[in-house]
Amino acid sequence: MQLRRQPLSAPRPGDTRPAAQRLAVPLLLLLALQGAAASGGPEDSGWLQDAEPSSRLLSQAARAALHFFNFRAASPSALQVLANVLDGRSWVNQKKEYKFDLVFTTEFYSAEEGEKRLGKCSAQVFFRNEKPRPAVNVTCTQLVKKERRQEEDYQLYKLMKQLKSPLNAVSIPDSHGYIAPSLRPIWDLAFLGSSYVMWQKSTPFLHYYMSQISSVKQWKTNDDAIDFDYTVLLHEFSTQEIIPCRIHLVWYPSKPLKVKYHCQERQTPEEASGTEEGSAVALTELSNF
Amino acid sequence: MKPLLGTFYLLGMLVPGWLGYDRSLTQQRQEVVDKVVSPWSILETYSYNRYHPMGEIYQWMSEIREKYTEVVTQHFLGMTYESRPMYYLKISQPSSNPKKIIWMDCGIHAREWIAPAFCQWFVKEILQNYEDNSRIRRLLKNLDFYVLPVFNIDGYIYTWTTDRLWRKSRSSHNNGTCFGTDLNRNFDASWCSIGASHNCESLTFCGTGPMSEPETKAVSSFIESKKENIACFLTMHSYGQLILVPYGYTKNKSNNHEELIQVGQKAANALKAKHGTNYRVGSSADILYATSGSSRDWARDIGIPFSYTFELRDNGTYGFVLPETQIQATCEETMEAVLSVLDDVYEKYWYTNSARKAKSTALVLGLLMSFMSLL
Questions:
Q1: Residues in chain B whose beta carbon is closer than 8 A to a beta carbon of chain A?
Q2: Would you say the ipTM is above 0.85?
């Protein structure tokens, strides 16, 4: 596919159209350029389609979409990770905004060795000005039926309610990669909270993985919901940095996830470091954070 | 000899370890200390499915050398920043045949524990099978293996005693306020031009100059001295499931890029056949990110033809903290990939020669035959 440029029409020799008409077309195009930022069509707004999108960039965009998907699904028993990008197109414009159109396969995060069921997602991902927190539109095939997913979430929830606080675990997993079976639900729930943070922080050039839970500050289960305050170590791949993030989440099966977080950035490229509030739902009841 | 070695290990291990003492990791440190000096053989019960602290790896090396004395020798490369000895194992079948060298190093980045685990696995596989496995026997006829099980020893120990996710070396900078150079940005290959930082705080700190670190100097001066005979340079990392060819510092390709990709792809296929794990093959700049000063790029630039970086399991699920339960599968599949590369290297240097002889003999015979028919 050739790089397609939107030509601004200029009067050609032998052009006998009246002056008003010659003005109208560029004017219309200008209007189109102004208004087309969010409309997604590849032909407008000065978007240049990448003739050879880098597989790395496509994978990063797919991961960002999956973080958002996992956060939205709020289901620790059904977390998905990227398997392969099947198809992807990318566009960039002069404002350094990036747009992606992707089709990719996914696997279960908690898949047992050998269990290889693949899901499939399609997503549009939009990064404004190389900034984090891309706008994501994502739909995935249902790997597990909704009822079964809710049932498994509820089982996880029951297991977690039985865990006594204070949790004595320091690092999950430990240095040897071991997670005690009783602590496995904690890891899954932590990954769910981290998904929100990783979505928020992803840019076209920064992408994250969860390395370890380095400490558990609080684990409460009064009034039914699970109240989980922990510190997670995120690994940013292109800088190789390890970023500690304090995350506080409240989860109840089938309810949307409530999250607050604060990451310690050692180096601050474009983003300001500091407390960032998250989640669409106000966290008025979590005032001691 | 053993008590002397033991004391040496103790000194080399305890003194720096003491300085980095962290009370909350008492248990792990205890393991490190306890396992250093063992009067008993650890080889009998050595588990290649577990991660081992540096003290055990030192002991393992010397016991391997003692047990397989007909083919293994241990050699000193240099001292680390914290004054620990760097040793590599040379596996060589004595013969009058001309040999090419295969170099493999693991653990240039401290937190990538699966890499040193693979180096140990590789040595074990070669030594346990070279007598009755025809494939390995053939390779050893003309190839010598040089294996450095842990490149960044100070950093590796630090991940056991203090910070599991430490990456760099433990050199001291800025008056002791900042530690560690990224050894894989410290080589003299477009040093610090891109994908590396002059800032010590960064995890990709390139050092105070190309080859500024003692570890880099130790390895590079050795490789430089043997470069004419080195056919293959393999450096093992994690994670990402990638087989990377030069370059990281430019999108330009090496003059044997096509061949490197072909051999790499064949290796990835062999790897996948084992347990279904997917690896991607490509240049660092294309499929990973821009880097400068990497050992692999430097090796290619001084003339070593087959130069690869392996990024082992996984794809981010556990990342650096890969569970021990995955060591065996990871090592088995990686072994297939490495053997595939070695087969190709072997064929390039020895099969081609004999094939060429066969072809030219056939040509001469053919010409003679046509001459005869004309008479």
A1: 24, 28, 50-51, 159-160, 164-165, 167, 182, 199, 201-204, 276, 278, 280, 286-289, 315-326, 329
A2: no
